[in-house]
Amino acid sequence: MYIVIAIIIFGVLITVHELGHFISAKLLGVKVTEFAVGMGPALFKRQRGETLYALRALPIGGFCAMEEDEESDDPRAFVNKAWWKRLIILVAGSGMNFLAGFIVLLIIVPGSAQFAAPVIVNFFEGCPYEGAQGLQVGDEFYKIDGHRTYFRNDVNMFLKRGSGVFDIVVERGGQRVTLEDFEMVPIEYELDGQTVLYYGFRYGTSRTGVASDFRDSWNASLDFVRMVWMGLGDIVTGQVGLRDLSGPVGIVDIISDVGEEAPTTSAAAFGISYLAAFIAINLAVMNMLPIPALDGGRVFFLLLTAAYEGIAKRKLNPKYEGYIHGAGMVLMLGFMAVVMFSDVYKLIK
């Protein structure tokens, strides 16, 4: 069941992405020949004006087909619209994915300890970080080594990624207090007969109220964007390798595991919704990278072409951009195949 749910999540997110292109294209007067939900053979089709609306058999995505022939004389063709209109249409897909992630977070954030403010309510006995020159009850972590900390998980993440000596900013009594070169490492504590590693302080409950729910949902969205960028940075620096990457197969397996291992149905719903929101925002960020064949690559070449044509007063031949995007598509599909093979290998192993 959870595998089916995971596949549906992917299908919905891709459809939402295409819906962003579709709505913006319609609003900006671009000719849309077909908008489809799903892929494969059509189960239902209806022609409304110039656009064919279709429901297709495989729930793994969808598409928005616009008039994009470079040689088209139709003034409503995508290529014949002003560059800023094409820019909006290209960005709208990722914008809808980000909005979808934000809406999911707006549903699951209220009252969730996962998104509680990083406010210290008490310390373990003997915690060395408590004191007049250190942390105090009521302190809310604001920044760690320049990184904004919205939630308690942010504190744990940046402390674990750090060297053990930090520049910490806390909000205390309405003011921001900076603790420079503050040394913090996990300490062994005995809890319920087990030895655990903690920093020695506990957090309070989450904020309440409509305004705080919107603020926390927005901050959680920004937090997910930051996590994606940090992940990309880890790939570039070699801190993670191919075995640490997951494609659709691996992500479906993760979602399935989260659902099956959850102690209750509500916990499973929360965990899967959390992952769905993260995937939606992940798609929004990744799709805007300036890589050929992605929307971000098309935006990059669109701005480059607009700048060139504005300066040189003549048009570039669009076929060269088409060659670049074609090559990028081949490379991207090859990379996706390698990641998928790695996912399958890990599952079998």
Describe this structure in words.
- A hairpin with a 2-residue loop joins strand 4 and strand 5.
- The chain contains 8 helices and 10 strands.
- The model has no long low-confidence stretch (mean pLDDT 87).
- It has 349 residues and is α+β, with helices and mostly antiparallel strands.
- The chain has helices at residues 2-27, 83-108, 152-161, 210-237, 248-261, 265-287, 295-312, 318-348, and strands at 32-48, 51-66, 120-123, 140-144, 147-148, 165-172, 175-183, 187-191, 194-198, 201-203.
- It folds into 2 domains: 1-114 and 210-349, no CATH class; 117-203, PDZ domain (Pdz3 Domain).
Note the main attributes of this structure.
349 residues, Pdz3 Domain, 2 domains, 8 helices, 10 strands, 50% helix, elongated
Mean pLDDT: 87
* SS class: alpha+beta
State the distance separating the first and last CA atoms. 23 Å
Secondary-structure element pattern, one letter each: HEEHEEEHEEEEEHHHHH
Strand content: 15-25%
Radius of gyration: 24 Å
Strand order of the largest sheet: 5-4-6-7
How is the topology of this model organized?
Elements: H1 2-27, E1 32-48, E2 51-66, H2 83-108, E3 120-123, E4 140-144, E5 147-148, H3 152-161, E6 165-172, E7 175-183, E8 187-191, E9 194-198, E10 201-203, H4 210-237, H5 248-261, H6 265-287, H7 295-312, H8 318-348
Antiparallel strand pairs: 1-2, 3-10, 4-5, 4-6, 6-7, 8-9
